[in-house]
Amino acid sequence: MAPVLYDLEVSGNCYKVRLLCALLGVPLQLVPVDFLAGDHKKPPVSDLNPFGELPVFKDGDLVLRDSQAILVYIARKWGGETWFPTDAAEMARVCEWLMVAANEIARGPNDARLHDKFGYDLDLGVARAKSARILGLMDAHLARTPWLALDRPTIADIACMPYVAIGHEGGVTLENYPAVAAWVQRIKSLPGFITMPAL
């Protein structure tokens, strides 16, 4: 039986899961959740994830609620050593970027988008300043290497790309970050790539 993703099409965090499954050829049963109606905060979704957030991923009896954790699980179960290696140093390098996705990118480009596109009451100036800082760091890094963590695409790239690539919906463009823009294009060129709205 295919794993189930409780999904919101415009969520970058849900998209990360859909994208990795597409790249790995993992069949996925999508259950759309009406976010505007607050269905993510009501049963049955809130029974699966008391945090009241999406995505929620179910594989048999296992339920996972965080996009980075879900990527780790999918990569280890279906991706072999390629997407999330077990070598200690390589795993740590991937994890560094999973933390960036959950922190700097979430509080930068993602927050700016939440403000502009969805009307969240957030400090836009802070979000854009954080965006400029992390995109500058990423651009310098990606000017030296094609992928974030290792010499190949990993879940580090999948975790970080969505909110960077759709940051323009929060006024955060890649105009001044050519290495980041080229990296997004490399991800888009991967076999099995699927897109999301605004990408």
Structural write-up:
The chain has helices at 12-24, 45-48, 67-78, 88-118, 124-142, 155-165, 178-188; strands at residues 4-7, 29-32, 56-59, 62-64. It folds into 2 domains: 4-78, Glutaredoxin (3-Layer(aba) Sandwich); 88-188, Glutathione S-transferase Yfyf (Class Pi), Chain A, domain 2 (Up-down Bundle). The chain has a 4-stranded mixed sheet with strand order 2-1-3-4. The model has no long low-confidence stretch (mean pLDDT 97). By secondary structure, the protein is an alpha+beta fold. The longest helix has 31 residues, at 88-118. It is globular.
Q: Can you describe this structure in just a few lines?
A:
By secondary structure, the chain is α+β, with helices and mostly antiparallel strands. It has seven helices and four strands. It has a four-stranded mixed β-sheet.
Distance between the termini: 30 Å
The H/E string reads: EHEHEEHHHHH
The CATH topology assignment of the largest domain is Glutathione S-transferase Yfyf (Class Pi), Chain A, domain 2
Main sheet, how many strands, which sense, barrel? Answer: 4 strands, mixed
Care to count the β-strands?
4
Oligomer: single chain
Name the overall outline.
Answer: globular
Count up the domains.
Answer: 2
Strand order of the largest sheet: 2-1-3-4
Which structural class is indicated by helix and strand composition?
Answer: alpha+beta
Kindly state the percentage of residues in helix: 40-55%
CATH architecture of the largest domain: Up-down Bundle
Overall pLDDT metric: 97
Percent strand equals 5-15%
The helix count comes to 7
Low-confidence stretches: none
Radius of gyration: 16 Å
